[in-house]
Amino acid sequence: MNLPDIIKFVIDLLAVLLLALGIKGLSKVRSAREANILAAFAMLLSVLGLLFYYLGTSGIPAQSWAWIIVGSLLGSFFGTLLAKKVPMTSMPETVALFNGFGGMSSLLVAIGAFLFPFNVVAKAGSLEPFINDVSISVSIFVGAITFSGSIVAMAKLQGWLSTPGWTQVKARHFVNIVFGVTSLIAFIYLISGNISSIWLLVIASTLLGIGVTLPIGGADMPVVISLLNSYSGIAAAAAGFVVDSQLLIVAGAMVGAAGLILTQVMCKGMNRSLISVLFGGSLSAQTTTSSGSGEYTNITSCSVEECALTLEAANRVIVVPGYGLAVAQAQHTLREVTKKLEQNGIEVVYAIHPVAGRMPGHMNVLLAEADVPYEQLKEMDVINPEFPATDVVLVLGANDVVNPQAKNDKSSPLYGMPVLDVQEARTVFVIKRGMSAGYSGIKNDLFDLPNTSMVFGDAKKVLSELIGELKDLGVGDK
Amino acid sequence: MNFDSLLWVLLLGSLLGLELIGKVPPTLHTPLMSGANAISGITMLAALTAIIKAEPNSPLLIIGSISLGFALFNVVGGFFVTDRMLAMFSRKPTKKNK
């Protein structure tokens, strides 16, 4: 080993160590921000290590420099632009898009490495060219699935694509098997030296990514993104075999494995198994007919004024924010309402369901953005015993996560999902645009209960009216 | 590097990844996913290698450059957006301006 090799080796080791510490730190609230910066630094270090290595050995041609600079500037510029501009409510589709582009990168570099080989030192009788081809094929397969799956996920989350009924037919499994088998055949042809089958592999695996993601409903999309994130790690590890880089292999494998664990954790929070997410189709499309279980019979609707009067008389209020709040972007207006209540000596806390918002943990981000003190956000297990001692619960755009069916009705598809026991409180106000069902498409028994009142309207509009009513009552004017 | 030692690297890296995150508070699911996603853009190293090793005027230069652009979009954007999310958590409620 000569000097550049040794330096590169040390830098790579350091980068792996920092990346591992980064991932570890990201899973703890206290260290998360520093851990993210640490990981970013590790990535920078790995790039500099690579560049200096080649500067010190073979040198980097001027043409290569030009293309490196063009590629990195454009990519970094648009990535930064999107990261800075995108509203916090659109976080799920943003992560999906970033992930898709990561997959695209692996896909392209693998295609490039196959069509214009640059790394194979073909020794007669050695295994290396074969392994090179297998790595490239894996990289193409996983990269293409990651790319097309992520783009479909993004389009669905953005509302550009719906879940059409025809995607729910059983035949879709057959179609996906055809795509899968075609990919496999192309894969085998490719590693046995048939170069032109590379395009078949690209097309078949792209279609497979679309075919698997398209039937999955919006509620399960975060799980899919997390899984695709894991895939992009695998694609990176495969690319590591192509360019013979231990650093790439370790980093890719770590992300791949950590992504799998995170996917599992998320599934648990939603009481879904990974298998049913991937192959079960959209929950709402399945259950609208089977488990509509009757009409609502005992709906009480009330005005914003009544709601304000009840709130004024309360000692303790729990807010349950949900998807609807995120969509209406009403978190800042909500913060104004709760400020007024707090000024009047009313205790306000927020009950955060593990999957509140548009993906797990999303609601915490949104409320933090609206300056809600972190200590006021209570996790489900902490808050559930506190509902009986609570005067008023405000349910804002949440639905399935407050459905008592999940606890009481064994026949319900929601049965077993962890829910917030809001019905235990003295009074429940549900602020909702209409009587439509939640993600699951299942009737919410909460709305029929005698202590529940519905306040119909857009979350943001109702909350602004509520501020006005509270002002008229002299709440929080001190 | 021998193929078998690379396989060891793959195996140990995967085991490390499985151990790294055991219990994640739900608060951090979104930022963790986004941060891990940024790290998966490490393929930029493969793209860089391809560009550096490409023959002059080879189409590989262009393919590599596009691949590098996509990877850096993922990496740089991913880290920035994760930082934006996490900055909100670390903000002290008492200090308004930060």
From TrEMBL, chain B:
It comes from Prochlorococcus marinus subsp. pastoris (strain CCMP1986 / NIES-2087 / MED4). The keyword Transmembrane helix applies. Its EC number is 7.1.1.1. The chain crosses the membrane at residues 32-52, 59-81. It is a multi-pass membrane protein. It holds the Pfam family PNTB_4TM. One of its GO terms (biological process) is NADPH regeneration. The transhydrogenation between NADH and NADP is coupled to respiration and ATP hydrolysis and functions as a proton pump across the membrane. One of its GO terms (cellular component) is plasma membrane. It catalyses: NAD(+) + NADPH + H(+)(in) = NADH + NADP(+) + H(+)(out). Residues 7-91 form the NAD(P) transhydrogenase alpha subunit C-terminal domain. InterPro entries: NADP_transhyd_a_C. The keyword NAD applies. This is proton-translocating NAD(P)(+) transhydrogenase. Keywords: Cell inner membrane, Cell membrane, Membrane, NAD, NADP, Oxidoreductase, Translocase, Transmembrane, Transmembrane helix. The gene is pntA-2.
